[in-house]
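To make this tangible, we now present a fold written out as tokens:
***
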Amino acid sequence: MTKSRAHARRRRHFRVRKKVHGTTATPRLAVYKSNRYIYAQVIDDDKAATLAAATSHEKALRSKSLNKETAAEVGKLLAKRAKAAGVEEVVFDRGGFPYHGRVKALADAARESGLKL
């Protein structure tokens, strides 16, 4: 039996990470969400380097409450920064969170902004 929701999420995340690995050609888009903010990074696991990052904690988005629209804005911002870094295609790492709601909104917005997931 799992000890808590956070422990169960970490177990799911490890299970996802066994299969998902970011390379130089296709880095990993990692998502983490708290109750207050959502964070997204494009990571090259081979070099252990973050290529682009965006969060709802940034000055322009900080005053907005965390909902699907804010998550979508983070996805658009991340896609713009990733394209500036020369990234066209990524593998999606949902971080153990269910793929719906804010996580799905972020992924869809990044996809609409030209990032290939």
